[in-house]
Amino acid sequence: MSVSVANIKAIVTDIEGTTGSIHFVHQVLFPYAKQHLPEFVRQNHKQAAVAEQVEVVRAEMGQPEADIEAVVEQLLQWIEQDKKITPLKALQGLVWENGYKTEAYKGHVYPDAHDCLQQWHKNGLRLFIYSSGSIYAQKLLFGYSDFGDLNDLFEGNFDTTVGGKKESASYQAIAKQLALPAEQILFLSDVVAELDAAQQVGMQTVQLVREAGMETADHAQVASFDQIQLS
């Protein structure tokens, strides 16, 4: 199963389920954040980077005077619900940094993704990440990956500050920032709704189907990066 894609100048790729295992995120990163985030927020809520996000959490709650325990409770609830909320993602990133630096884990990257990203970068393609995880968390994952620091492969990163991943306006904004026609951008993801949104603005799309039983649609499908042929 291979797919040929033509006239591509830039590739924007998702992370979870695409460049790396969805299980790494859900079975390693999320449990680590759930375990360590409460005490991290309690101990560091007066530090500028954490305080800024705590205020955003309070605003999202509609409770500007909420105490720190209420903030922690809300964060844990969002983790349970797998909410794609920017302040949660930012705080998770700060917690995950400690895990990476203490070698509690390394960022999972599929070998095929690593090899193709290296080759595409060598060939002069512009590479970008777009994930619901914060840009900080993205850079940690690729900075402390199974293959070492891969951040130099990417020209830039996008997260939910550019918009939701299932909203076409987000991809329009990305194309504008890349200063490229949408049809010269290839978007890679495992999620149909994200691919739909990218396709709506004219981007070319390929779905990574790495596990049996995944939802699929009319997008080109591959099981690994090396099945994508660029021409």
Features:
two-stranded parallel sheet; Transcription Termination Factor Rho, Rna-binding Domain, Chain A, Domain 1; 13% strand; globular; 231 residues; six-stranded parallel beta sheet; Rossmann fold; alpha/beta
Helix content: 40-55%
Quaternary structure type: single chain
Based on CA atoms alone, the radius of gyration comes out at 18 Å
Terminal-residue CA separation = 17 Å
* CATH topology title of the largest domain: Rossmann fold
Pattern of helices and strands: EEHHHHHEHEHEHEEE
Order of strands across the widest beta sheet?
A: 4-3-2-5-6-7
The largest sheet, given as strand count, sense and whether it forms a barrel, is:
6 strands, parallel
**Reported CATH architecture of the largest domain:** 3-Layer(aba) Sandwich
Strand content: 5-15%
Basic shape: globular
Total DSSP helices: 8
CATH superfamily of the largest domain: HAD superfamily/HAD-like
Q: Give the mean pLDDT.
A: 95
Question: Class by helix and strand content?
Answer: alpha/beta
Contiguous uncertain segments of 5+ residues? none
CATH class of the largest domain: Alpha Beta
Number of strands: 8
Number of domains: 2
Structure description:
The chain is α/β, with parallel strands linked by helices. It has eight helices and eight strands, in the order E-E-H-H-H-H-H-E-H-E-H-E-H-E-E-E. It has a six-stranded parallel β-sheet with strand order 4-3-2-5-6-7, sandwiched between helices. Helix 6 links the parallel strand 3 and strand 4. Helix 2 crosses helix 3 and helix 7 crosses helix 8. The protein starts with a strand and ends with a strand.
